Amino acid sequence: MAAVALQRSHSALGATLRRIACRKGCRVAAFATAGKLAQLVYRMLRWSQDYADICEQAYKLQFRHKRIAGMRRAAETLGYELVPQTPAPR
Question: pLDDT, tens digit, for every residue of 36-50?
Fold first, then answer.
């Protein structure tokens, strides 16, 4: 129930749930987010780690950078080079 409640949250966990739900559906996203929540709670209880939530924008930016890095590595293995697109003059 906690994972489903994150659906409208403006946190990194809410953004994760919505990102997975776009690809896999709401039920799968709820289970995946519940697993992520269980991991966080376990770490907090077992090792007394604090949970510091980053905002939704920071999570999206971090995810974008990781995705671009992965695409760049995949392109390099195929012998290509990614070049950022420059905006066309108006």
Answer: 999 999 999 999 888
CA distance 34 to 7: 12
Residue with tokens 């695409």: 71
The structure's pTM equals 0.71
Domain segments of the chain as ranges: 2-77
- The stretches of 25-55 forming alpha helices (DSSP H) are 26-47
CA distance 27 to 49: 29
Contact between 30 and 4 under an 8 Å Cβ cutoff? The reply is yes
For residues 33 and 17, the answer to whether their CB atoms sit within 8 Å is: yes
